[in-house]
Amino acid sequence: MKITILGAGAMGSLFGGLLAEAGASVALLDINQQHLDAIRHNGLRLDTDTGSRCITQLASARPEQWTDVPDLLMIFTKTHQIAAALTSARHLIRPTTWVLTLQNGLGNVEAISAFVPRDRILVGVATIPADFLGPAHVASHGGGQIRMGHAGNSALTDHPGHRPFNDCCMLCQVVDLFNRAGLHAIADPNVWAAIWEKVAFNAAFNALCAVTGCTVDQIALVPSAPILALAVVEEAIAVAHASHIPADLERTQAMVLRSFTTHAGHQPSMLQDINAHRPTEIDSINGAIVRTAAAHNLPVPHTGMLYTLVRLIEARTNNDVILSGGPPRLFAAMHAISRAEVEGPPEAACPLPASPL
Ligand code: NAD
Fold this sequence. Notes:
Layout: E1 2-6, H1 10-21, E2 25-29, H2 33-42, E3 44-48, E4 51-55, E5 58-61, E6 72-75, H3 82-88, E7 98-101, H4 108-112, E8 121-126, E9 131-134, E10 137-140, E11 146-150, H5 169-180, E12 185-187, H6 191-212, H7 224-242, H8 249-262, H9 269-275, H10 286-295, H11 301-317, H12 328-343
Parallel strand pairs: 1-2, 1-6, 2-5, 3-10, 6-7, 7-8, 11-12
Antiparallel strand pairs: 3-4, 8-11, 9-10
The protein binds nicotinamide-adenine-dinucleotide (NAD).
């Protein structure tokens, strides 16, 4: 199978390296020129639990320079980089091309379907970790799994592109190839439940760690912090249920509690992004939950507060000008808050807007 990976950072390089080792023809496309040059000159160094080795059978290029049309285009940019990346790789998408996303967050299929019909998109979730150590050098330690399915296969019966689960031999081929590459993969008819469970987990941990600077295990230092994490998970799973996605609350909360020991010392990528003054994926994680909750009239106060705080840190570190020309709802909320400060707690006469988000 001819595979092109668009966004060859930590995850893209890891998957590309392992798939090339398994015999697939793989091209890594990225805009990090130093990384591309280092792969071209020295190959990709891959450190995993099975050892450190150099993979040389990988092509690498900038998206606009690559012309070989793949069978499968895997997108592994950050979620907010999807549109720019696919714009520069548009010439690689033909009616026969499949696109796979295993990115975190929600809204990725919608962003990709601006470029590819939804019935050519495979979607999933990966719990395999990857770290970018430097140009042409990535590492992955500890296990994980990939669950994937057809993007049209959702619990939402009115989903566009809905089709029977087994009606997709490309899905089976990709799962088979991934397993040969040591990437533990399964085809999952409930893939949207798995996606929402990971989003719920990320909404709790990534945002809490990004706001506090804590590693995952440090969140357990104060008893009320794990309770806050579990409250975020509960809100997110309630939103999934309102969207007819059968995500499992107990399983997700158990995953949260387990990670205090299994992810000890780990800095989630959102904290790493904040520390490096890069945009985070908050909008497709907490932001997407807040927006979906609003559509169902569901309150998600803990998720919404973390969303606002991370957005505020991003705005401060990126020097965004957020007040000039702000949306009317923002000014309405500010007006209501200043009135409340002057007049004291309202008797019920002046309700604050539920959320200015
Ligand atoms: P990363 O930042 O290491 O890699 C993203 C890559 O995309 C970078 O190399 C960047 O240069 C490239 N890129 C950005 N804009 C581009 C463009 N216009 N064209 C081509 N390439 C472009 O991120 P990552 O850690 O590999 O994560 C990728 C996705 O996988 C994210 O959604 C993340 O949440 C998810 N994920 C990551 C992990 C992990 O452990 N790293 C685990 C599970 C899921």
